[in-house]
Amino acid sequence: MARNRYDMDEILEESFDIKQLKRLAHYISPSKKRMAGVIFLMLTASALGMVVPIFIQRMMDIYIPNKDMHKIFLVSGLTLCIACYSALSLRLKVKNMSVIGQDIIHAIRSDIFCHLQELPFSYYDDRPHGKIQVRVVNYVNSLSDLLSNGIVNTITDLCNLFFILIFMFVCDVKLTLLCLCGLPVLAVVIVFIKRRQRRAWQIQSNKQSNLNAYIAESINGIRVTQSFVREEVNMGIFNKLSGGFRSAWMKAVVYNFTLGPSVELISAVTTAFIYVLGIRWILDPNLPLTVGTLILFTSYISRFWTPINTLASFYNSLLTAISYLERIFETIDEPVNVKDAPGATEMPPIHGDVTFENVCFSYEEGHPILKNINFKMKQGETYAIVGPTGAGKSTIVNLVSRFYNVDSGTIYIDGVDISKVTIHSLRSQMGVMMQDSFIFAGTIMDNIRYGNREATDEQVVEAAKIVCAHDFISQMEDGYYTQVNERGSGLSAGQRQLISFARALLADPKILILDEATSSIDTETELLLQKGLNRLLEGRTSFVIAHRLSTIQNADCILYVDKGDILERGNHKELLALRGEYYKLYISQFDFLKGEIG
Ligand SMILES: Nc1ncnc2c1ncn2[C@@H]1O[C@H](COP(=O)(O)OP(=O)(O)OP(=O)(O)O)[C@@H](O)[C@H]1O
Ligand SMILES: [Mg+2]
To answer: For labeling, which of 199, 290, 419, 480 is most exposed (least CB within 10 Å)?
Structure first.
């Protein structure tokens, strides 16, 4: 798949799959009872409300002319009780629907987040992270209105319409038929705007996603932006994206604004007609229409158009929500292509023999990165991987943890094909320190304990001591309880590496992977660290990737990788004797150091 960027729209689905709405119903289902209660309240309130116009008609036509005070008081009291019941049911509706709406949103958001936790690296490689965030936060939030009010309002409004129509027909058939003449006009308006409206909301959600992606990228890259004084250029890009979002939004809401006023207009025209006709009929002594009946009927007309108006606005929010639902379910449905194979077994306790057998791999189809990689490590050995930038070193170790699936070939650990075991049982026995050491928001203690939550404070301190992190941590104001921010601001790059190093060790891995673990650490600390590590690495299989060759001279075997191929292999002495690529690299670093010393 081509990589998506902040200035690239995502593909729009041509037609809406009705199954998406059925899936939404699945989220609503646990709140069925509460929703039924709310609908009951709304229906009873509306049915009772329907009686009020009859009271008014009776008052006008019978009780007031007859000065029947007893009935006047009785009817007024009943009207007051109905008003109180309506107010109470409205309050309960608002409260309960907020609970239902938020429960559903929480369930959808949990499903997306849970799925995001499982999606492989390749998913995150392919799109800006801002576009993922917008789905979890903004799109899900946008469903809130539809879920909190829309569904119950729609059900109650449909029932209301049904009741009102019965009352209207009972009251006057001809006037009711006249009133219904407005509906086909409304249907024509809906048919006319439907496709355009859906497309407009899809485009709007795309523009929102692009804008979000750019904002997230800009925040992550703010240091580079400021150091290269790119603020103005970035503002230009932002304004363009924000402007695109704004105009897409304006185009989309224009359609939403079409429906409401159309309902208003149609209702005003039909009501006017009914008044004109009604008054003529009242004046005609041959027709039985009374003033009270006309007032009764016109009050039903306004009640008839109110639910139609809310149904129209529900229709608007439905179309808006559909454009978000498509993206939400697309994320939930994203296949997890690095997952346990059917019938996968638990990885037995790892001893540490690792074998790569004819392993080929590519991140993108047609662009091979690793070409037929073969090597055999024995338990407890340290393999160093060296080579130029972009050679494929990190890629090799990423495959050991099965962060990606190999294209062909097999990786065995202790003779077990790693694609046949569960990912959890495999990764939980490995300690990985990635090239870009990530620090999470929280204390330093939490960060080191990240991969082994059962570890005691003493074990955390012990791991920190081994990687020479203890000194700088204890010098901090709150020691191990110092709060660090996401990405580790407040720490130097070397300190971040040491913390990640301690984290990898604390997981008590059987296989340890250190990708440029010491690149930002001063040579003195590195020498100290090496001593502690040598003790610790005894009996553990480890991969060490390093550009600084001083780090890896003691490795049991060094693989020199270039362009996805192992060009040379052997220990330090053997490779120097070979006088090949490794030798050249060693000499260049040695010459550089000599030059530095003078
Ligand atoms: N997520 C990715 N998607 C696509 N291509 C990638 C990805 N990661 C790396 N590559 C490509 O794969 C090749 C090998 O990358 P890799 O990260 O393994 O290099 P490396 O040897 O670790 O380099 P360095 O020493 O700079 O860390 C590079 O050409 C790189 O462009
Ligand atoms: Mg790398």
So the answer is: 290
